[in-house]
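ok trying this again, last paste got cut off
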Amino acid sequence: MTLLASCSQQKDGMSVISGNIEPVTDANTYLRLVRIDTLAYTPVDSVKPGSDGSFSFKLLPELPGFYLLQSGRKTLAPVVVFPGDSIRVISEKGIISFSGGTEAGIFDNFRQSLLADEAVVDSLGTVVMLARDLDNYAEFKKSTDSAWAALMLRAKGRSIAYLNEHPDLLSQILVVNSKIRQTFIFDQATDSLWFYMADKQLTGSHGNSPHVIAFHKRIKTLRTANHLEARARENMKPGKKAPAISLPDMNGRAISLNPIRSKYTLVYIWSPTDGPSRRANLELKSIHEKYRTSGLEVFAVSLDNFPERWAAAVNLDKMWWNNVNDTLAMNSPVVKDWYVTKLPVFVLVDQQGKIVERFTSANSLNDRLWVELGK
């Protein structure tokens, strides 16, 4: 089934989103259009599709913005809507696609490429799961890891091309924040230049948009954080002796950083109450599983006033490595000695106790470990 693109504009500023979805079996299911505001989701309208799946939304948006098309409780797809847009929608084999409008069709082509990537990722996951009991499982895992890295690299290339080819599109915000499954294509720390570029382009073309204003504030905060982190990295140059750490573990015994036991020791500084740290815990688990047999050990330093909360987070996130905590939290000597400006912090240390590199994200850490231990 094919859909002819519709690029017509409504002269009265009325935006129309219409098309067909696959007929639903539940007669009580309505399609909803929800506006994505900077602080909340706001329902705009709901319609009951016809017996053939046809539907139409009409709205008068004051400014260009982002919307979600939902069916019942399920979100079908995001769409970019400008005043006066005429956007066509079709559903085929459970996949929603858009065409026409000022940006809707252009962004949807990009979104469809991410959906194709996610299908490949699912296939890779299935291969790994089925190969777990095979003697050559390690080879399968290394092969799928390489395929995943190549896929992410291609996705980043497409995203960069989008930013370069469409410098005046509001949907740059969606592109620079895109992810494949739970992995963001752009890392705020290592890929900050692309965030800066999008911010500059968006401020020039859509400076009055609430989305752009909120994005600009976020980028200002990112610039400040990256400046502080650059100073910290300067003070912890590769080759310097890693500061000593001795803190109690979950049994109350003092545990010291002892990098001679493994080829590399990752000093990981985090907090159970810090959102980025909790997300990094999950990423680090995968990294540890990948490289622990090749010589990676983790020494995780928690900064939390309440040991019970720290212990609960360790067990909940299944952090099966060396764990210690300092109840002085951000007043801990670790914060000063290791130049902690934001959490989490990743510092790779060699067997001589010297700093190999300080990383700003789990992704950049994984890239370095692939060079050191993955081949």
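PB: full thing came through this time. Residues 275 and 343 are 9 Å apart (CA to CA).
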